[in-house]
Structure formats: structure tokens, C-alpha cells
Write a structure and sequence with these properties.
The chain is of the alpha/beta class and 415 residues long. It is 44% helix and 16% strand. Helix 6 links the parallel strand 5 and strand 6.
């Protein structure tokens, strides 16, 4: 196959050359994401995030059942109702965790603390950053996750990566064994945090002998909320700080370091790989070729929003005071003129039915990676699942595919 990829026909196509693999299977069947709220994509996405990252169906149902009357409103009243409902479920899970902890049942307590962390982050997701309750829920989530990881005995440590006079908070998920293991620096997206990525992906990478450094980089998570670090286009800068850090660790092989990103991380990761040549592979968990185009689509209601108040959230992420100022930043968040600078292997996974980021973003990302030593585009179809944004309908399909690919490229385990 040449450097192009045509997916318009949705025909089964697997073509291989020296440095290119394109995988797209025919779309048959009606597999859809579970839609608790048929009229509210944003709430459905959050519901599935809870399911994919350790929430219990009964808890999620309890939180959402009373919200059905609000689902069509999409205003501050509806988002506050969501917040209050999920805070109640989170607080109950945390209370049950404390009871287990006091009884000496620490593994049980750990599981419940982690669930509480999931629910606190779900509560935090909907209100505006101007709502004081958002910060309350976030801090409660951090505390619950920290207790949960510790009591469960998870092989994960909290680290702070030196960066521009402050630090980037991160989780280091350690591969089994005592030797030097491959490591992937994992970036977040527009509205996700390190704890959610840990819950979705860390175990499968660890099973394959691969460590993860999951980073709240500028514009997301703690870096934004507690450090005041706004996002920018030049993600190779925080990426370099992350590589500097992992190369100091005795349990990381400095010659086997990759980079990955989810959602908007589909821009962040390849941008970093293009300019930080110490990365030996790159994974896009959902492509994003041009963020300004996505902003245009949102303004014209041509795509679904991942969070309420999308424009307001963007101003917070990028530290700007107006939509005009945000667009000055997002115009620089493009992979045009960047992808041909990537020389390491790259994997792009994308959903056929992604309602936030059109499939064409994945195709362009793949097509322009002409100097990659090995490039692959995997399109998850409606017939197989994993077809929604970042495989929201079935995270496991995407996570397994990515972890297997990284294991092949960086020398991890697949059996």
C-alpha cells in the first residue's frame, strides 16, 4: 500500500509494506454504545467512563436514575443535579471503605476507595470550573484514589516530575520483576485525568511487562487544577521532562521508552514523538489531527461535546479569557507539517462511529506519517465494537490492541 488510506467504502482491507499497515474491517451489525440517556451524549460518555474504569453498575444506575428528567436540559441546573447525585454515591462508597478499613479488611476498603474516586471524578466532570464544588470533588477523588491504591497494594507510586520551576504530577505503574522494563509516557486528553487512564489501561500494560508513567501535563488534571499550568501546542516540552525523569529510574530501560495519548492526546503524543527523538514508539488512542477544526465543528454543532460548556472548558484548559483567544491557541494544535518528522513506529486506533473526532483525522494522521519506520491505523468498526470515541463502548478492545502492539515494538510480553 502507498502512503494513502481510503476508508470510504468500509471494505475489509489489510495492506502491508515496509513501514505501513492499515487495518479496517467491514462494518456490519448494529453494535452501539450503551445509552442510558439517549438524548444526552455527554452524560452517556461519562456513564461509560465510569463503567470502564471500575465503577459498579448498581451504583451508576442509582446515581443516574433520578437524573433522567434533567437529561434534555443541558444547563447549569442539570449539571448541578448530576454533581449532587454522584457526590452522594461517592460519599456512600467512601463511608463503606472506612468501615472496612476500621475492621481491618484493607483489600475490601481499597476497592471501595477506588470506586469512590471514580464517582467523585464523575461528579467533578459536569460543573463549570467556576463552580466551587468542582474543586471539592476533585480533591476528594485524589484522596480516595491514594488510599485505594495503597490499601489494595497496587504497584503504583505517585511521582512529581520537575518542570519549569514546579512539577507535573504523575502515576508510575511499575512492571513486574526487578530488571529494567520498557515504559510508556501516557498523556491525557481534553478532559481526562491520570487516575482514569490508570483505571482503564495500567493493568494490561503491566501484564505485558510494560511500565506506564501517566502524566497530568499542562492543561489537565492536577497540573491545571492545582498547579495552574495551562495547555499549549508544544507538548514535546513536558514530554522531554518526562523522558528525563524515567531515564533516571533503575527500573526503566532508557532505550525502550514510548509515548501515548488519548483523545486530544491523539495530537499531544505524535507532536511529542515528532520532536523528542528519545521516544521509540507512539500510540494515538483516538486520533486528533487538527483541534481548531474540532472547535469549528463544535461551534456549528456538527460534533458531540465531551463535556458541558465546551468553550468555557477550553478557556480554562488553555488559560484564556475568551473564545477568540482560545482559537489563537487551537490554530497551533495541528499535525500538519509535523507527522513527516516522526521516524519511530506509530499506531493510531480510532472508532468508525466516533461522534467527536471524525475518522478523517485518523486517516490524515496515518497518511502523513511517511517517515515512520512502521505505521499502523486500526479502525474499530460497529460490527466488532470499540467504534465510539476512544472505544468508549468497549475500552478493553482498544487497550488490549494497543498494549499488544507496544509489547511487540518495545519488547514486552504477549503470553
Amino acid at each position: 500500500m502507498s502512503g494513502s488510506a481510503n476508508t470510504s467504502s468500509r471494505q475489509t482491507s489489510v495492506s502491508i509494506e515496509r513501514n505501513a499497515v492499515f487495518v479496517n474491517q467491514s462494518s456490519k451489525g448494529e453494535h452501539k454504545v450503551f445509552e442510558y440517556f439517549p438524548e444526552n451524549y455527554t452524560w452517556n460518555l461519562a456513564f461509560m467512563s465510569g463503567m470502564n474504569r471500575g465503577g459498579a453498575l448498581g451504583d451508576l444506575d442509582e446515581a443516574c436514575r433520578s437524573l433522567k428528567a434533567h437529561a434534555g436540559r443541558r444547563d447549569a441546573v442539570a449539571q448541578q443535579a448530576w454533581y449532587e447525585s454522584f457526590m452522594k454515591v461517592a460519599e456512600r462508597s467512601e463511608a463503606l471503605a472506612r468501615r472496612d478499613e476500621e475492621a481491618g479488611n484493607l483489600f475490601s476498603a481499597g476497592r471501595k476507595y477506588v470506586r469512590a474516586g471514580v464517582y467523585y471524578l464523575l461528579a467533578e466532570r459536569m460543573p463549570s470550573h467556576k463552580n466551587p464544588g468542582k474543586a471539592v470533588a476533585y480533591r476528594k477523588a485524589l484522596a480516595a484514589y491514594e488510599k485505594g491504591y495503597r490499601l489494595r497494594g497496587d504497584p503504583v507510586e505517585r511521582v512529581d516530575i520537575p518542570f519549569r520551576g514546579t512539577s507535573l504530577p504523575a502515576l508510575f505503574s511499575k512492571a513486574p520483576g526487578s530488571g529494567r522494563a520498557p515504559c510508556v509516557v501516557h498523556f491525557d486528553g481534553f478532559d481526562i485525568t491520570k487516575e482514569l487512564i490508570y483505571g482503564a489501561a495500567a493493568e494490561e500494560y503491566r501484564r505485558r511487562g510494560i511500565s506506564l508513567l501517566i502524566v497530568d501535563h499542562p492543561g489537565v488534571g492536577e497540573a491545571l487544577r492545582l498547579r495552574g499550568l495551562a495547555g499549549s501546542h508544544d507538548t514535546e516540552v513536558p514530554a522531554a521532562a518526562c523522558v528525563d525523569y524515567v531515564q533516571t529510574r533503575a527500573d526503566v530501560d532508557p532505550q525502550r521508552i514510548g509515548v501515548a495519548g488519548v483523545s486530544l492526546g491523539g495530537y499531544y503524543a505524535p507532536r511529542a514523538a515528532a520532536f523528542e527523538k528519545r521516544f521509540k514508539c507512539c500510540v494515538c488512542w483516538g486520533a486528533l489531527y487538527d483541534f481548531d477544526e474540532i472547535m469549528e465543528n463544535r461551534a456549528a454543532n456538527r460534533s458531540e461535546p465531551s463535556v458541558p460548556g465546551h468553550d468555557d472548558h477550553a478557556q480554562w484548559v488553555f488559560g484564556k479569557q475568551s473564545a477568540k483567544e482560545v482559537r489563537e491557541v487551537t490554530r497551533r494544535l495541528t499535525l500538519k507539517g509535523v507527522m513527516d518528522k516522526i521516524t519511530c513506529p506509530i499506531l493510531i486506533v480510532h472508532g468508525e462511529n466516533d461522534r467527536q473526532i471524525p475518522l478523517q483525522h485518523a486517516e490524515r494522521t496515518y497518511q502523513e506519517a511517511v517517515n515512520s519506520s512502521m505505521r499502523e491505523l486500526k479502525v474499530f468498526t460497529l460490527s466488532e465494537g470499540g467504534a465510539e470515541h476512544c472505544a468508549a463502548d468497549d475500552n478493553a478492545l482498544a487497550v488490549d490492541y494497543m498494549a499488544d502492539w507496544v509489547a511487540r515494538v518495545l519488547g514486552g510480553k504477549r503470553a
